[in-house]
Amino acid sequence: MSVSSRLNNIVAISATSGSFAALTSQGSVVTWGDTNTGGDDSSCAAELNDICAIYSNTHAFAALRSDNNVIVWGDPSSGVNDFPSGLNGNISYISQ
To answer: Could you state, in order of their start, the residue ranges of all structural domains in the chain?
Structure first.
């Protein structure tokens, strides 16, 4: 399925230096761009559901799930490999 056909009901978008991640109103994520900076989410695609928010740095993304767990992907040296596991379940999102 092409990226453009999946870009429906977008509620938020985030970018790294070479890729984008769009959050849909259904809580799924669509990524595209440089695979080295998060444009390829295949390593965690099965976990990218029930997403509340997406954040990024220069080379990686972090997505907050409704169960308060964080999914990270992108360049391993940009915090992906060093993500503090103690945050999972201990972070929350407050919608306005």
So the answer is: 3-87
Cβ density class 50-83: b for 16+ within 10 Å, e for less: ebbbbebbebbbbbbbeeebbbbbbbeebbbeee
**pLDDT for the residue 79:** 82
Q: How far is CA 57 from CA 6, 46, 52, in A?
A: 24, 22, 18
pTM of the model: 0.89
List the one residue out of 65, 51, 17 whose CA is nearest residue 30: 51
**What CATH number is given for 3-87 in this structure?**
2.40.10
